């Protein structure tokens, strides 16, 4: 996993481990329509989290570029 992707990976892992996600998963299991609606409902929150993490991703990408250039 590229270092610049670690922030995204951590965000998704935190989302998947949350109690809210577990409850939502239980409520929508076996119902493709409800699951699709849940994904759509979570989209804006996930986009906001990813946007808020942009400075960290940018920093990680710069560090990775510097590491590659130093090799």
UniProtKB/TrEMBL annotation:
Residues 48-71 are annotated as: Disordered. This is ATP-binding protein.
């Amino acid at each position: 996993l590229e270092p610049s992707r670690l922030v995204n990976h951590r965000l998704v892992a935190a989302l998947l481990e949350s109690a809210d996600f577990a409850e939502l998963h239980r409520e929508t299991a076996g119902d493709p329509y409800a699951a699709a609606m849940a994904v759509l409902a979570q989209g804006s929150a996930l986009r906001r989290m990813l946007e808020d993490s942009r400075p960290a991703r940018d920093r990680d990408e710069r560090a990775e570029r510097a590491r590659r250039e130093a090799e």
